[in-house]
Amino acid sequence: MRRIALVTLVVDDYDTAIRFYTDALGFRLAADEPRGDGSRWVVVEPGADGHGTGLLLARAKDEAQRGRVGDQTGGRVGFFLHTDDFARDHARMTAAGVTFLEEPRHEPYGTVAVFQDLYGNRWDLLQPAE
Asked: Which ranges of the chain have pLDDT less than 50?
């Protein structure tokens, strides 16, 4: 079976990004391995089972990449975090300091609210309709 295993997210600091994604969003650290060039292979994944698409946290290497940190999708929602309990995860994330840009809303496709990661990338927290 084919699936998208990783999506690269350009960050300015590995350790700060790891703390945000693991502490605030509840992801798990799946890999943190040094590479010969001074970079690291850092992967965080939602959930404990390792079946979701992971994020490869890639530290920006130059000015062009640093200019993309926090604006990888031109201000659009670029990432979608599904949950099976919107109220639980919204409350936990809010308590952890995650910035939500709107109040939760109910749409035909589910309950959703847009939030920002620590860099300003926009995400949907989404509990799909059944």
From this structure: none
